[in-house]
Amino acid sequence: MAVPSFLARERIVARPGFNRWLIPPAALAVHLCIGQAYATSVYKVALVEHFDTSLTAIGIIFSIAIVMLGLSAALFGTWVDRNGPRAAMFTSAVFWVSGFLIGSLGIATEQLWLLYFGYGVLGGIGLGIGYISPVSTLIKWFPDRPGLATGMAIMGFGGGALIASPLSRQLMSFYDPSYVPTDTASVASGDAVAKLFLTLGLVYLLFMMFGAFLVRVPAADWKPEGFDPASVKKKALVTTENVSANNAIRTPQFWLLWTVLFCNVTAGIGILEQAAPMIQDFFRTGDGSLVAASAAAGFVGVLSLFNMAGRFVWSSTSDYLGRKPIYMVYLGVGIVLYLVLAILGSTATWIFVLTAAVIISFYGGGFATIPAYLRDLFGTYQVGAIHGRLLTAWAAAGVAGPLIINGVLDARGTPGQLVAGDYRPALFIMVGLLAVGFVANLLVKPVADKWHEPKKAVEDFTHEHHTPERSAAR
Questions:
Q1: How much is the pLDDT for 115?
Q2: What angle do CA 5, 28, 390 make, to 5 degrees?
């Protein structure tokens, strides 16, 4: 599918002297906006009351968006690699913003299906394309520090909710004066949520367009000053060859990494999805809990901070330790931490909070490090498309994680009466999943030579797509 010339990759090849540190802000502009997806709990109860429906019916909106994220990232990954980051960011913005505008219309007219279609389907497509849009570009601008580069961008996705949550509360109180953001029992009106969606859509349009028009791709012969490409070849598991997206999914390495990501994300979602009630249940005394609702909300905020920080810190650390060793830490130490949480978590709040926070930092680190792991194994040729296909593991984990923990808890009792022991079966299942992921990571080896693309095909593609158009050079 052709794109308008002003979006084409050939029109955004950087001129000599371009500062590569302008690319992370461009990527952050997109990821901070689509990271709002983690802030849907802010208006969840308001939508339940507005539509007079169940939490499950409203929760489906988020599930649709995550499934569409995985599907669109897999389907459009090759298109993103072919047409470049500006076309991808622009398209992502159109879908993401359309999702908010149609969702706003659905809330205002009390048509729930419009919210499913708008925020869930269209917004989910914007999520998927936006998530993968800057990845391959960052890796090409930072061949010396790919973990740092992708960590900076994907940290934005984890931090989007930290901005969107308080902003949404303030906007809802502005549109509905009877809503008190600091009162956990206060619920905003549907009209306020509809206007919130409209406002967020317009704000995100501005920020995502800023990112789309700031981003550039490096010229074919560009490399960082002082960087020797030959030094990459000395590292274990790091290739200087390239594998196409179609061939990558035929290799065992792709499916081993799919398993690694699925296990790491499923385990992390198990805690994230139940964070607030979980800490209250672990310290329940009779009908009450030693942890107040406001403190539980604060705990969710702490987890968000560790989720965001883990994406940057652990991914950057992988540039020094190597991708395979860092996943051994995420999964191996993760097993120990889950056991500590299950056995000792209810003995002291500091043990519970600290253990859960480090687990969530590994969850975020796993997301941010996977693009660099793919680049090490499959090269830069179609790493964005390969990353997109691997994100189907995220979509699958988004369904499996909540199903596992909710299924166990439903079988053990009713919400409000659960205690720490009721969570142990689910936590032990997560330990088993992490062990599967640990073994899968151990089995990762370099990709066989038969899957490598001919060097001339890669060079022709690079020259064609990383050379400025004459009209653009004027």
A1: 95
A2: 80
| pLDDT tops 60 at residue 173 | yes
Q: How far apart are CA 365 and CA 331, in angstroms?
A: 11
Report whether 219 contacts 430 (CB < 8 A). no
* Amino acid code (one letter) for 95: F
What is the three-state SS of the chain? CCCCHHHCHHHHECCCCCCHHHHHHHHHHHHHHHHHHHHHHHHHHHHHHHHCCCHHHHHHHHHHHHHHHHHHHHHHHHHHHHHCHHHHHHHHHHHHHHHHHHHHHHHHCCCHHHHHHHHHHHHHHHHHHHHHCCHHHHHHHCCCCHHHHHHHHHHHHHHHHHHHHHHHHHHHHHHCCCCCCCCCCCCCCHHHHHHHHHHHHHHHHHHHHHHHHHCCECCCCCCCCCCCHHHHHHCCCCCCCCCCHHHHCCCHHHHHHHHHHHHHHHHHHHHHCCHHHHHHHHCEECCEECCCHHHHHHHHHHHHHHHHHHHHHHHHHHHHHCHHHHHHHHHHHHHHHHHHHHHHCCCCHHHHHHHHHHHHHHHHHHHHHHHHHHHHHHCCCCHHHHHHHHCHHHHHHHHHHHHHHHHHHHHHCCCCCCCHHHHHHHHHHHHHHHHHHHHHHHCCCCCCHHHCCCHHHHHHHHHHHCCCCHHHHC
Nearest to residue 327, comparing CAs of 253, 404, 424? 253
Please tell me the distance from the alpha carbon of residue 196 to that of residue 8, in angstroms, as a whole number.
33
**Cα–Cα distance, 58 to 71 (Å, whole number):** 21
Tens digit of each residue's pLDDT (9 = 90 or more) over 17-29: 889 999 989 999 9
Integer-rounded Cα radius of gyration of the chain: 22
* N-term to C-term CA, the chain: 27
CA angle centred on 87, ends 82 and 91, rounded to 5°: 120
Contact call for residues 349 and 291 (beta carbons, < 8 A): yes
Residue 441's pLDDT is: 96
pLDDT one-digit tens code per residue, 53-109:
887 788 788 888 888 988 898 888 888 888 889 999 999 999 999 999 999 999 999
The values of phi and psi at residue 197, to 5°, are -60, -45
